[in-house]
Amino acid sequence: MMQKMADLLYWKDTRTSGVVFTGLMVSLLCLLHFSIVSVAAHVALLLLCGTISLRVYRKVLQAVHRGDGANPFQAYLDVDLTLTPEQTERLSQQIASGVVSAATQLRHFFLVEDLVDSLKLALLFYILTFVGAIFNGLTLLILGVIGLFTVPLLYRQHQAQIDQYVGLVTNQLSHIKAKIRAKIPGTGALASAAAAVSGSKAKAE
Q1: What's the helix, strand, coil split of the chain in %, to 5?
Q2: What is the DSSP-derived secondary structure letter of residue 112?
Q3: CA–CA separation, 66 vs 168, rounded Å?
Q4: Per-residue DSSP letters for 8-50?
Q5: Packing angle between helix 14-33 and helix 36-63, nearest 10 degrees?
Q6: One pLDDT digit (tens) per residue for the chain, 205 residues
């Protein structure tokens, strides 16, 4: 699944990526002017008109003895969509693992397990308040889709230069983070205590 997504974003199959990108952009641009119910209804109606027309066309060919009248979508209808107990259990475990991981991260940030991490998240939300004043959620979603289909391709084409600049920025952020930790009283002590507790637990296990 991840490989298919990567191929889609890297435009390995230009036709498929173009169709998906165009479909997403047209749908999102429609949502700028119409309600989501109206857009969903029109998309579903358009899809049904296409499939019904193709099905009727095959029946007409059968009537004039130029075809067998078989359902053109039979190959998709024959696909078995049922899940075995093992697949259901594995999917449930993945969902539960994702929920637990998300809850752990939220607890880490909002209950201030690490002061620096919580401050960084607060800064991020503070910046988002200004972003939200300029763009609405749908506009950000459109920009996100454009970024998904352009940034990976640009990165692959200019990977060396981008990695160099990212390395410089990462080093600068590391220095800033170290300075912040040094200036906030007790942060270093808390980090040392947490490391000591973790080490003790590891030895005990």
Answers
A1: 85, 0, 15
A2: T
A3: 67
A4: HHTTSSHHHHHHHHHHHHHHHHHHHHS-HHHHHHHHHHHHHHH
A5: 130
A6: 678 888 888 888 888 889 899 989 988 888 888 888 998 899 899 999 999 999 999 889 888 878 787 888 888 888 888 888 999 999 999 999 999 999 999 999 999 999 999 999 999 999 988 888 888 888 888 999 999 999 888 888 888 888 888 888 888 888 887 877 777 655 455 445 545 545 554 444 4
pTM, 2 dp: 0.58
User: Hey, CA dihedral for 26, 28, 30, 35, is it positive or negative?
Assistant: positive
Read off the DSSP letter of residue 184: S
